[in-house]
Amino acid sequence: MGFFDTLLYPLQWVVAWILALFHELLTTLGMDPAFGFTWVLSIAGLTVVVRGALVPLFVRQIKSQRKMQMIQPELQKLQKKYKGKKDQFSRQAMVEEQQALFKKHGTSPFASCLPLLIQMPIFLSLFRVINNVPRVAAGEIDAVGGMTVELATQMDSASVFGIPLSATFLTGDLSTKLLTAVLIVIMAGTQFWTQRQMMTKNMSEAALDNPFMQQQKMMLYLMPVVFGIGGIYFPLGVLIYWLVSNTWTMVQQMIVIRSMPTPGSQAERDLMERRARKGKSPLPGAQPIALDEDEDDAAAKKQSGQRQQPMSAKRQKQKKRKK
């Protein structure tokens, strides 16, 4: 066992056991233990367990991002204060004041990366487990966790549309290249769309008008490219995990943006408009959305219980001239 496998062994052990337990459950429900989609659902189950465990971190990430956006005006003041000052003393003073500001508001610019950083070792552990399945099945290396020789043999012989779960874009035939290429494109696309939604819908104008956002925009295009290129080395089973994980992130973010938008963002204005149309009170601390005069009249009549009388086209024109 190499250094890398030794370092990740505890996580590989957990990942292998979760896969084995989901496989056992699906087999008990009547699915073929050597069927490719039995293992696909087992990998999806692993993804749900991992992402479910990361929900508290996601909540912390959302809170931290909101705090970061709320202190953008103060950060911009600091940048103007030290603009043009390139001496070491000024740079150090600016960094110290920024750190004090982050500490005061209980946030950090790196908090948004925390769920991804925690997922990476799990992702790499799954990569090693699936990559080592043929060797475990052949008896070349010892079993890891619940991934016994029997299970490894079943997983090694399992396939999706005739493509083994351990096959990669580089090692497979034409059909393997086509399927993995489609998954890589979808994986990169969901990641790009998720990040873009966050930047265009759930950020305030103050947060968008910031030099830091230029770096974020670069990452918006860079990260899908990095994962797209790296995806050609990933086994099919790992691509399935990452695609399910990206889909979870996308849906989770859509729910958060729609129901709990960042103050001052486009998503908050959309939410206020929806609440105004339904006659609901505005959110605490948010600016109420003004309805048109006709909408106000209709809402008032609806609340008073009066039935709106039909109006002729001539009378409608006279009413508009009076306005």
Number of strands: 2
- H/E series: HHHHHHHEEHHHHHHH
**Helical proportion, percent range:** over 70%
Strand order of the largest sheet: 1-2
Largest sheet: 2 strands, antiparallel
What general outline do the C-alpha atoms trace? Answer: elongated
Task: Figure out the total of helices.
Answer: 14
| Overall SS class | mainly alpha
Provide tags for this entry:
mainly alpha, 323 residues, two-stranded antiparallel sheet
Write the layout of secondary structure elements.
Elements: H1 3-28, H2 36-53, H3 55-70, H4 72-81, H5 88-105, H6 114-137, H7 149-157, E1 159-160, E2 163-164, H8 174-201, H9 205-208, H10 211-230, H11 236-259, H12 266-277, H13 293-304, H14 313-322
Antiparallel strand pairs: 1-2
Helix pairs in contact: 1-2, 1-6, 2-11, 4-5, 6-7, 6-11, 8-10, 8-11
Give a short summary of the structure:
With 323 residues, this protein is mostly helical.
Commentary on this structure:
- With 323 residues, the protein is mostly helical.
- Helix content is 72%, strand content 1%.
- It has helices at residues 3-28, 36-53, 55-70, 72-81, 88-105, 114-137, 149-157, 174-201, 205-208, 211-230, 236-259, 266-277, 293-304, 313-322; strands at 159-160, 163-164.
- The protein has a two-stranded antiparallel ribbon.
- β1 and β2 form a beta hairpin.
- α1 (3-28) crosses α2, α1 (3-28) crosses α6 and α8 runs parallel beside α11 (236-259).
- The longest helix has 28 residues, at 174-201.
- It is elongated and about 65 Å long.
- It starts with a helix and ends with a helix.
- The model is unreliable at 287-296 and 298-308 (pLDDT under 50).
